[in-house]
Amino acid sequence: MWHVFLGRIIYGPSVPFRVLSYNVLSQALLEEHTYLYQYHDKVALNWHYRKKLLMAEIRQARAHRTHGKVDGVAVYYRADMFDLYDYTTVEFFQPGVRVLDRDNVGLVVKLCVRGGMPAQQIVVATTHLLFNSRRHDVKLAQTQLLLTEIERFAFQGVSQHQPKYLPVIITGDMNLEPHTGVYQLLTQGRLNYRGLSKKLLDNRW
């Protein structure tokens, strides 16, 4: 889904670039749950066939790009435009925490514009939240972990009694719909979840 950006245009030293957020179905998951794709063309499900089409589509977009499970997340970037300054991984699995017992992960990278000023850095984060549409409590806990790590990574100190952060881009497959509480948290920056059950985090209940 495309959204037209109507925000304030910032003038001054800037570097235009294009971001592509892409969810590629893991071949391992496809082969593990073949019953979901029993009516699809078997040729189209072959990885060698899929890989060629996926790479062609990703290249066509010309995006400025860089635990036991064989699927995961990645951030690709154009090496002629950015240098990788730092990165951190986010493991959502936390032993002994019931709402954080899944193997989903996140990745946060800090990129520097090549040949630019030291201040020209940007933080890019990506994740793939839990799919289960009934477990909004798990998605909320995973999102909180990701946002905490992003805040730590993007924090630049305090200026005039206000925290200062690098620009942040959050991408990924959130498995969310607009009526959910976690979607509200990500789009509005706040969510009052006190006393809400995992079902009540879905505003249709």
From TrEMBL:
Query: In this record, what's one Pfam family?
Result: Exo_endo_phos
Reading the lineage from the top rank, the first entry is: Eukaryota
**Gene Ontology MF annotations:** 3'-5'-RNA exonuclease activity
The cross-references to SUPFAM superfamilies, in alphabetical order and at most eight, read: DNase I-like (SSF56219)
Please list the residue ranges annotated as the Endonuclease/exonuclease/phosphatase domain.
49-193
User: Per its record, how is this protein called by name?
Assistant: Endonuclease/exonuclease/phosphatase domain-containing protein
Q: Which organism is it from?
A: Timema genevievae
